[in-house]
Structure formats: structure tokens, C-alpha cells
Amino acid sequence: MNEMLVKIPAAVPEMRAVFDAQRAAFLRAGAPSLQERRTDLTKLGEAIKQSAGRLAEAISADFGNRSRHETALGEIMPVQSAIRHTLRHLPGWMRPKRVSVGLELMPAGARILYQPVGVVGIISPWNYPLNLSIVPLIAALAAGNRVMLKPSELTPRTSDFLAELLGGLFPSDKVATVVGGPDTGQAFARLPFDHLLYTGSTAVGRLVMQAAAENLTPVTLELGGKSPCILGEDASLPGAVESIVYGKLVNAGQTCIAPDYVLLPEPRLDEFITLTVDTVEKFYPTLAGNPDYTSMVNDRHYRRVAQYIAEAKANGARVIEINPKRETLPAEGRKLAPTLVIEPGDNLSIMRDEIFGPVLPVKNYRSLDQAIDYVNAHPRPLALYYFGTDQAKRDKVLRKTVSGGASVNTTLFHFAAENLPFGGIGPSGIGAYHGEFGFQTFSHRKGVFLQSRFNAARFLYPPFGRITDLMLKFLTRG
């Protein structure tokens, strides 16, 4: 492969040249066959399987330390699962779907054809640099598109590795990787894609949407927000705490659907704190040299989360740092101890910003309605978690709150269900993907009407008369 296939330079003219080459190739070749799509997905899955060790090393180097098990669970496994699911179901997804035309238009027929949209752009983030690059790529290729990928500059080793990996599998007029910083990302978003998917912060998502609007490019925005975790009065606290601690501390909290804060009945606060401390000590008996405990990705994010904690302390909030061996955690290692912040004021940054770190605010509620009202008074989150055994209360929470997705009596795992759409709503995102929803996101659903040789349409043509009136009376009946 030449250098253009491995890593596309950041210059705007070269990006545009790659885009034009992909558009020309799409127009020339048309929609790929089922077999071609299957071949592309199969070789992608095999290459990632063979490169899993090197990918884990690259990601860990980018983070300073990233647990290889977390990479296997959060990156490799979801990618392979998505490929298996897509290969199994793709023939059915591609098949034209017959639909009824209604009594008024019979005996005509109708069907929906699923066509690739053309050239798809994917802007992926740093927190799960493989998963959130490759899973959208799987959906776009399954739908028959050409793809340009812009991975994050904050994980440069992984981005370079992805460029090398994908460049070795696909010609640049099918899949191309663009590397570079924020300026490159801005120029990338302004390319006239047929669809653009962005995963990242809400603030940058607004800018991406503005840039895409210049070309009327449809967008899917996978953003974030403050995902609440509500504990019902009947929640089994030991199991709930284990799930919450896992969901919060995997990848050091740098997960878009991590539990951002907890709402729990006031009488259960002390038990929750005790169980959280015990669970953290069980999961992570040490922190500094523990390969299972991930670092913050860079100094800026480390300082940002540390400032949240400092501000909470300065404003009188009760702050509980959980450091089992009371180790010194040097700033250069970028490891922050798991921290509880009890009853922080809503004016604090920790309650206004998405935390994206190993810090968990905990607030009391007196009634379930109060907890629901608190969630609804804030921007709609990407995820919501509820713990409890009472089905009526569970359904009440799910019915009266609006979130991108939800899990009950666990955290995070709705993301892994390929038959569920994954996406946000409002400030937490637009659109969804995963499984068939990803295939449809990157497909054009073309409605096709098939007129029968024998039909009554001619009775609706001018000149209008008595027969027309009779037809209209039938067609406009109540």
C-alpha cells in the first residue's frame, strides 16, 4: 500500500481529493453485493482479532495506563459481536420490504428498497478509540457505503494504528483514515458527506452540526450528558453498588454512559457509602501500580476532574476519597482515586458538567416523584439507570423520564445489546445506530410504488365529472 492508503495527510485539498475519489468510485460501482459486504466485514473482523494485542498496547500507551481487560471488554468484544450480528442478519436487512398500499390504491403494490447513501464521514472520540470508530464503520459498510474516518488526535498511537490497519485492508476509495488535530476535524466536518456521524461532547457536537448544515448533510450525533442512577427504596443495595461502581470506574469513568450521579432514599445513604468503599477496595485493592485501574487520558482532563473535587471541598460538600492503601498518586501518572461527593450543590461544576472521571456525586431524595422531577429538570441524558424490584415503580421511572437509553438493575449493558438502538435525545444526541438501526441510519429507504396494469387511476384524470365525484366520495369517506 502507498502512503495515501495508510494515512491521509490533514491538508484540506488532500481530504477533498479522497472524498471526490470515494464519490466517483461509488457512482461508478454502485451498491456492493451482499457477498462483497460480507467479505469486507469478515476481513475487518479477522484483522482486529489478529491485532488485538497491539491495539491494546497502543490504547494503553495513549492513556498512560489502560487495563488490557477493559480494552478487551469495551473495545474488542463489542466490535467482534457487532460483526457477527451483522453477518448473520445482513441478508434480511438488505431484502426489499413489501408494504401495503391500502384499500384506496389496490391492486397496486409497494416496497421499500434499502440503498447506500454514498460517502459517509465518521468522527470518533478518544475514550473508546477502537469501538467508537469501528462499530459505526461496520454499520456504514454493511449498508454499502464508502467511508472516511477521522479518529481523535488525543489518542494518536491508536489513530495511527487504525490508519495502518484499515489502509492495509481497503483501498482509499472505499475506506480512508484522516489523522490530524481540531483544525482537521473542522475541515472534515465541512466535507459534503451523504451522512456524518460524530461521537463526542455536546459542545463540539453543536459545531459539527453547524458545519454539516452548510451542505445539508444529515447527522447522527452521539453525545453525552449527566446520566442519572436512581435507587428505589426496594433496591438490593449490595448488587446495585457493585454494578454502579463497575459502571463508574471502568475506563476511570471516561465513558459516555457512565453513571454520572446517584439519587437514593435518604435513609440508605450511610449503607450506600459503606458498600461503595468496600466494593472499590475489592475491585481495586491498590491504585498506583494497578494495571486494572486506568489513568485519565491526558493532563487537561486530569486537572479538570481534580478541579471538580477541589471546588466541591471548597464549597463545603462532603468528599470521600477511596484510596485503599493510602497511596500517593503522582499527578504525572494521571490516576485519580475513586471519590464520592455527598450532597453537592447544583451550582457546582460537578453537577453542571459531564464528569467523565472516577468521581460520583450522591444526592438524597424523599420520594420517587422528587427523583423523577430532578432528572426531568435537567437536560435529557444519554442513559438512565434504575435499581429496584417493584415493577410499577420501575415502569413509572421509565415512562416519566426521557433518556437516550436505559438499563434496569445494571449499568452500561444496554450498549452491548445489538438489537437495541444506541443513541441520545436532545443535548445527548440525535439519531441512533447499532445492529439494524445502524444499517438503516446509513441507508436510504427508497419508497417504490408499483402500479397494476388494471387500476382505477384514469378515473381521477381530467376532465372531471360524475365518476370522479363518486371516486372522491369513496376516497374521502370518514
CATH architecture of the largest domain: 3-Layer(aba) Sandwich
- The CATH class label of the largest domain is Alpha Beta
Uncertain segments of ≥5 residues (pLDDT<50)? 1-7
Taken together, the total number of domains comes to 2
Distance linking N and C termini:
66 Å
Strand content: 15-25%
Class from secondary-structure proportions: alpha/beta
Main sheet: strands, sense, barrel: 7 strands, mixed
Radius of gyration: 25 Å
- The CATH topology of the largest domain is Aldehyde Dehydrogenase, Chain A, domain 1
Bulk shape: globular
Describe the structure.
- This protein is an alpha/beta fold and 478 residues long.
- The protein has 2 domains: 3-223 and 429-445, Aldehyde Dehydrogenase, Chain A, domain 1, CATH 3.40.605; 228-423, 3-Layer(aba) Sandwich (Aldehyde Dehydrogenase, Chain A, domain 2).
- The protein is built from 17 helices and 18 strands.
- The chain has helices at 3-6, 12-29, 34-50, 52-63, 68-94, 131-142, 156-169, 182-189, 202-213, 237-249, 269-283, 299-314, 349-352, 368-376, 391-400, 435-441, 466-475, and strands spanning 97-99, 109-116, 119-123, 146-150, 175-177, 195-199, 219-222, 228-231, 261-265, 318-321, 339-342, 359-365, 383-387, 405-408, 422-423, 429-430, 432-433, 443-450.
- The strands form 4 sheets. It has a 7-stranded mixed sheet with strand order 10-11-12-9-8-13-14, with helices on both faces. It has a 6-stranded mixed sheet with strand order 5-4-3-6-7-16, sandwiched between helices. A 3-stranded antiparallel sheet has the order 1-2-18.
- The longest helix is centred in the N-terminal third of the chain and has 27 residues, at 68-94.
- The chain is globular.
